[in-house]
Amino acid sequence: TKNDAGAYEPVHGHTVVIYGQDGTTECMHYSVSYNTNGGVWAEGENPTNQIYHYGEAVTVWDKIPTMEGNRFLGWKIQEFDQEGNPVETPNGALYAPGQQITDKIDKPIALVAQWEKLITVTVNVTIDHNADTGGSDNDITKHDITFTLLREENDVFLPVAEQVLTTGYKDDQDANTTTYQVIFPQMPQGIYHVLV
Predict the structure, then answer these.
(1) How far is the C-alpha of 56 from the C-alpha of 115, rounded, in Å?
(2) Per-residue pLDDT tens digits for 76-132
(3) What are phi and psi of 129, to 5 degrees?
(4) Which of 60, 119, 146, 177 places its Cα 20 to 30 Å from the Cα of 42?
């Protein structure tokens, strides 16, 4: 378009129809929208629909939403059936912030956040005082026990977290055992083993 000074400026967010002898030609634009799927944006980081002109490259916005008790995995492109209803795409590609989705946009794109529920792994530890040797009933910090949490991935157990449990000799002088809990919060779901 031509401004008041006579200079030409680009047109953003509009469909421009150019009439010519052979009919009309449209300069098309498309939106890229973000569905947080239950997550929330930090204040001031909520993207509105982003507008791209036909043929432009599209890169995922570099901010991510958050959801309590969940880990953000990435974005999936929402696919639709012929009636316009959203369909599940379990094997669809995941896109990371800053990653290019396409080098040439030719249709609207709706991105949906993907989440993984986090769990708390609790290990119950029972100390058998009858089997305990050394020390005395007056010991306060007789043992430091290191627990390494291993997560199974592709038949291999990889260390993902570590906790140190400091135990006294007896909480109750008449008890034969004392039970403790070792807690690993905010862990991805999976199969875990504990190495002591």
Answers:
(1) 29
(2) 988 777 777 777 776 778 999 999 988 888 888 889 999 999 988 888 888 776 665
(3) -70, -25
(4) 119
Quickly list DSSP for 143-192: EEEEEEEEEEETTEEEEEEEEEEEE-S-SSTT-SEEEEEEEEEEEESS-E
Question: In this structure, which amino acid lies at residue 61?
Answer: W
CA–CA dist 131, 168 (Å, integer):
15
Q: How far apart are CA 8 and CA 15, in angstroms?
A: 17
Residue written as tokens 């449209």?
26
> pLDDT for 13-54, tens place per residue?
455 555 555 655 556 788 888 999 999 999 888 777 788 888
Joined tokens for residue 26: 């449209």
Q: How far is CA 86 from its chain centroid? A: 21
> Which one, of 191, 169, 188, 189, lies nearest residue 180 by Cα?
169
